[in-house]
Specification:
231 residues, four-stranded antiparallel sheet, 6 helices, six-stranded mixed sheet
């Protein structure tokens, strides 16, 4: 991707982030996403906090926690939270039914817990993330290391080809000290069914199919935003 395309995508992410933070209210508990898109939302939230908005954030990763603290956002530990008013996060791809693939940044387990606790899960994205059918982006699967070979076998049974994610010539290790398998299922015809099948595999902590968790997706397109919401 050339620099102009990257700049355009970043602009669309910023526009979507600015629209999403309008839904935050005084004293909300706010889930803070992980990744390049969520980064823009956290910056926008920090500006609101600086201007007097009182919120408490719940980070979905150690990187997000460090960024939020550096920007003056007060945090709550995830394990102490019983409910979250609004979460703003990104996605690796989404369809018009609000099904998502997430986990490109490796934080899918905490992202899914936060999403499950959230009343209003808002996904922000650039226009390149919209797909007619999920599956162009591989589905990340967080795996307990001892179960790796078993999980790879089970993914193959589901017609998925799994590869262990690497970083700096070593296995990528999540914040939860697990590994990520990126599974290629091709185009996914039944996201709900595949999600349920992945849930049943022993040794899988979480997977990157987020079904019926998003309340809306705000997509930047050029200098405008398009909102996809639950019917």
């Amino acid at each position: 991707m050339d620099k102009q395309s990257i700049d355009n995508r970043d602009l669309e992410k910023q526009i979507a982030a600015r629209e999403a933070v309008k839904f935050i209210r005084q004293n909300d508990i706010v889930g803070l996403g992980t990744g390049s898109t969520a980064f823009f939302a956290i910056q926008e939230i920090a500006l609101l906090v600086k201007n007097g908005l009182k919120i408490k954030g719940v980070p979905t990763s150690e990187n997000t926690a460090a960024l939020a603290v550096s920007l003056g956002i007060e945090l709550l530990p995830l394990e102490e939270v019983k409910g979250i008013d609004i979460t703003i996060d990104g996605a690796d791809e989404f369809d018009e039914q609000l099904n998502l693939v997430k986990g490109g940044g490796g934080a899918l387990f905490r992202e899914k817990i936060v999403a499950s606790l959230t009343k209003n899960e808002i996904i922000i994205a650039d226009s390149g993330k919209l797909v007619k059918q999920l599956g162009k982006f591989k589905v990340p699967v967080e795996v307990v290391p001892l179960a790796l070979n078993y999980v790879l076998q089970q993914l193959a049974e589901l017609n998925g080809k799994g590869e262990v994610r690497m970083k700096d010539n070593a296995r990528f290790i999540t914040d939860n000290h697990n590994i990520i398998v990126d599974a290629d299922f091709g185009l996914i015809t039944d996201a709900t069914g595949l999600a349920e099948s992945l849930n049943r595999i022993e040794g899988v902590l979480a997977h990157g199919l987020f079904v019926q968790l998003a309340s809306k997706v705000i997509m930047g397109k050029g200098t405008q935003t398009i909102i996809y919401a639950k019917n």
